[in-house]
Every structure is written in C-alpha cells, then in structure tokens.
Amino acid sequence: MHRDLIRVLLSTVAFFTLASAACAQSQGRGSNTLVYATPNTVFSIAKEANRSAKLDSDGDGDPMITSQAEGIEYVVFFYDCTDGKDCKSLAFSASLDDTQGATLERLNTYNAEERYGKAFIDRDGKLTLDMDVEIEYGMSRRNLKEAFVDWEAAVRAFKKEVLASGQE
Question: Which among 76, 79, 98 has a CA at the least distance from the CA of 88?
Fold first, then answer.
C-alpha cells in the first residue's frame, strides 16, 4: 500500500510538471501573437523587414507606414482601428501616376499568375498594386514580417512582369 501511495504521488508530480511546462510553452506562443496591431508594433516589424520604413499619418490623421521596394514607393494603411490603434487589418498599396505602358493583358496575366498582390488601373488612371492582410483573429510577429516579405516579392514581380514589359 505504501508503494501504491508513492506511485500516485510521483504520477501526480509528473502530471503537474508536464502540464505546467505545456502551459508555459503555450503562453510563450500566445505572447508572440498579435490579435490587433498597433501602428508602433507594425512599424517595428516593418523596420526589421525594410530599413527605409517610416511611420506617418494620412490626411485624416490615421496612421500609415511609408516605404519602398524595388524603387517603388508604397504605403501600408491601417483599417478598422480603435482610436488609431488595435487595428484589425492592413492594406499594402503602391500607386504610380503613369501607367508606364502597362496593358490590361499584362495586368491580367500578373493577376492570374501571381499569388500575392492585386494589380489594376484605378478610377483615376493610376497603375496600382494592392495586398490586404487580415489580423483580426491573430497573427504572429513572424507571420506579419513574412507579409512584408511577400509584399516585396509582389512588387518585384509587378515591376518585372508589368512595368518592365511596358518599357520594351
């Protein structure tokens, strides 16, 4: 009976040790997850991905990040924010005043073949590349940094497939 009691105690100690380790590991992952994004948090991630990033505000005073990739300036807009923070989504956008010879056929080909970014000519005649990122239900810092990498790859492909072709 004495041995049975010792086994139960050892099993209980082992269980709680493993449970607390699993809980600590889970909390470690959770603390790295952004449920909502503050401009400063996104800006620090943007700086890790691209040193030229700058935190700014638009004409309405809403936060935005400006930067450039492949010589093309772009903006990251914050949407569904509460008091300029706790934003639920981001929109990457590059807009060029000159269509630079881009054709609808090249834009359609880009959109059909590329996974990230949506290319189009907007209602003001500007050549535009957009990419939305939803973070309302959480995203790790690492995944958000990867969104910046994906965006820069989209800009690179856009420049090669839409702009470079238009300059032949």
Answer: 79
* pLDDT digit string, tens, across residues 42-94: 999 898 877 789 999 888 778 999 999 988 999 999 998 888 778 889 999 99
Residue of 56, 49, 96 lying closest to 76 (CA atoms): 56
d(Cα 69, Cα 59) in Å, to the nearest integer? 23
**Across the strands, what pairs with 74?**
67
Question: Using one digit for the tens of pLDDT, what is the confidence trace for 95-144?
Answer: 998 777 788 999 999 999 999 999 999 999 899 999 999 988 888 888 99
Three-state SS for the chain is CHHHHHHHHHHHHHHHHHHHHHHHHHHHHHCCEECCECHHHHHHHHHHHCCCCEEEECCCCCEEEEEEECCEEEEEEEECCECCECECEEEEEEEECCCCCCCHHHHHHHHHHCCCCEEEECCCCCEEEEEEEECCCCEEHHHHHHHHHHHHHHHHHHHHHHHHHHCC
